[in-house]
Amino acid sequence: MRKSLIIPLFAALLAYAYFDIKDESISAPNSWSTGVGNTIQQAFVNELSDIQVQGKGVVVRILPDDLEGSRHQKFILKLSGGPSLLVAHNIDLSRRLEGLAKGDVVEFNGEYEWNSQGGVLHWTHDDPDNRHVGGWLKYKGMEYH
Question: N or C: which end of the chain has fewer CB within 10 A?
């Protein structure tokens, strides 16, 4: 039992060290994010991907846009009691979250992809071909999809 607790704890510590999160005064909403019987916590610990999740987190870092291929607005959310989550929001298919700043709360619904730093959330928009479940982001009373 002790080993089963050490591995997820070590992985979470590595994720925080990787993102160099220094402002511990920012507290995340009390949400690990759930979706279709799964949580980001379960997906992270079990290294699962392609899972639709929903929840909310606090912005801890704004990253430069990814302009290669489809353009993505990128930022990192801190989830309460869990790993950090990189959000890659397609701004060719959805509007940018204007004015996004460190400390802001963002709600999300999208697809989780595991990585050792905490994971990536994408598909936070509607699929124009209707082949994938649509996602969204909610920020300051506005829904982006």
Answer: N
Report the predicted TM-score, pTM, of the whole model to 2 decimal places: 0.74
What confidence tier does 132 reach under pLDDT thresholds 50, 70, 90? Answer: confident
Contacts of 81 (CB under 8 A, 6+ apart): 28, 30, 32, 41
- Looking at per-residue pLDDT, the higher value among 17 and 72 belongs to 72
- Exposed, middle or buried, 80 (CB in 10 Å: 0-12/13-18/19+)? middle
| Cα–Cα distance, 145 to 70 (Å, whole number) | 15
**Domains within the chain, CATH numbers bracketed:** 2-144 (2.40.50.140)
pLDDT value at position 80? 82
Determine whether 98 is exposed, middle or buried from the number of CB atoms within 10 Å of its CB (0-12, 13-18, 19+): exposed
> Rounded to an integer, what distance in angstroms lies between the CA atom of residue 21 and that of residue 14?
11
